[in-house]
Fold this protein.
Amino acid sequence: MSIKKEISTATVKKDLRYLELLSHKFPSIASASTEIINLEAILNLPKGTEHFLADLHGEHEAFQHVIRNASGAIKRKVNEIFGNTLREKEKKNLCTLIYYPEQKLELVKHSEEYLTDWYFITLNRLVKVCQNVSSKYTRSKVRKALPQEFSYIIQELLHESSVEPNKQAYINVIMQSIIDTQRADDFIIALCNLIQRLTIDKLHILGDVFDRGSGPHIIMDTLCEYHNFDLQWGNHDIVWMGAAAGNDCCIANVLRMAMRYGNLPALEEGYSINLLPLATFAMEAYKNDPCKPFLPKVSKENLEVDDKTFQLIAQMHKAISIIQFKLEYQTIKRRPEYKMEDRNLLHLIDYEKGTITIDGNTYKLKDSYFPTIDPKDPYRLTPEEEIVVEKLHASFMGSEKMRRHMHCIYRNGAMYKVCNGNLLFHASVPLNEDGTLKEVEIAGKVYKGQALMDEVERQVRIAYFGTDGDEETDYALDYMWYLWCGCDSPAFDKDRMATFERYLLSEKETHKEVKGHYYTLRNKEEICEMLLEEFGVVGQHRHIINGHVPVKVGKGEQAIRAHGKLMVIDGGFSKSYHSETGIAGYTLVYHSRGLQLVQHEPFSSTQEAIEEGKDIISTIQIVELSGSRVLVKDTDKGAELRIQVEDLKRLLVAYQNGMIREKS
């Protein structure tokens, strides 16, 4: 059917003002027609590969390796391309080179006797891999991903076949010239980075970049330079976002977590946070205190510190924890609607006996030395504590790198995302026991489901970008702390965060945190379907993808639930979870042939990966296979392109009917 018959003149007249604007970008019949042809062709390419990760918790080495090897996708492609034509050792070395080109090249140059031959062979192999990973994209998209200095040469190599006799000599001369001009190292690095970039089209991070591990700032450096990613905020991200916005409770929590896991370098070296005021105060206030309950969770050997530094971290840990309890009292008193009075526990302590009475039960405290607490006014900060809080606040607000990372988090992040039939969010959508959406009050109004998530996101943005001193901004800033640990927070959704009890009480029953109903109800297919409908997710193959709660594989828990409608991909990237989960993380890969869940074993180290070719041992589980390859036209991007095609067709009719004149 011709475009004129397909589109009525009345439809064109209705959109004439918009089409007039569009004509400035496509000023002629020829340019509009060319773009239609281009878009129609793109619609019939295979969809790009999406990569899902959750709960990174500062484990930068494992994260960067998984990003570099695309959860094993590059290794699989190398096996497919070369099969039995290469030995396993050669394929392993090629993969390691692709993952860590700069470091691997240094090793090769010190060990390879015939370096020129190695360069020539390796360049040919890398070009084959690059041709494979670029085959699902248009030349235009590949060209935009190319490093500028090698753009022309790489294009020639990618689009010329060495099988043709007339082209073989041409390609060989290009390769030899690269080696002769001593650009082989730079060219190999450029090709390896291009392979990494083209293997993954889009990266989804389902929350919790921060805390526990030592390198959240390194992860953020990587993400801020990544070509295409999004982030669904987790509660550990939100507490850092609240700290960066100036919430003192959030600042105290960030510092406490850093002391708990001995991650001072992330604060000091990563974000230039001055910890000297806290250290000086802690050494004075707790100089004769062993602070046993506050010793870091990581051994001093793993932290590579001496006994004195290890003890100082414990003292700082205790100091900031007591400050945190006092600061949180102020917020809870100011916001009674949070209903968190049960978190105020300092006034329940019998300071002479060293006990605490909670709900009629009396418990012996593991530590009863509190020199900065006045039993008559336990929540009042001492003058010295007030000075520490002020200086830490100023340090957080003055961190340029933190500000840069936060802008990246806000620009690429949200509470949830709907993408290609998948609903992504970190923790939960609060539910009632009967499976209905729970109504949650925020600033005097009630929200539930998608409307709740939208309002929470609005509050998160107001807290950071709002006007200082404005009533709405003040509320949003307090709410950031609630999102970290409040019972109706979609990023947390537990009845409480039992920080005090975990530190100071031996009785395990007092440590219990009761999860919201979502965490059990999400195992039911009908609940997942209800939530997918609530968020407007369409398609036959639609899923919910979560993180937040580690899947305890060692205890028989499964990542895939509700007959395949739900996937929980927090498998424990953080080393502190490995003993609990039995593995070292999940990633999910969604390519044009279906969904694959990848289960990872613990990552040894980057150094071993480079020197010995040690890859993460991964097990692939097929979640869903498509009967035919999923094309761009089957995706959300495809829907956008179809709209563009229809707009261009209307513009063509306007040109052909003389409603709009072509521009010279």
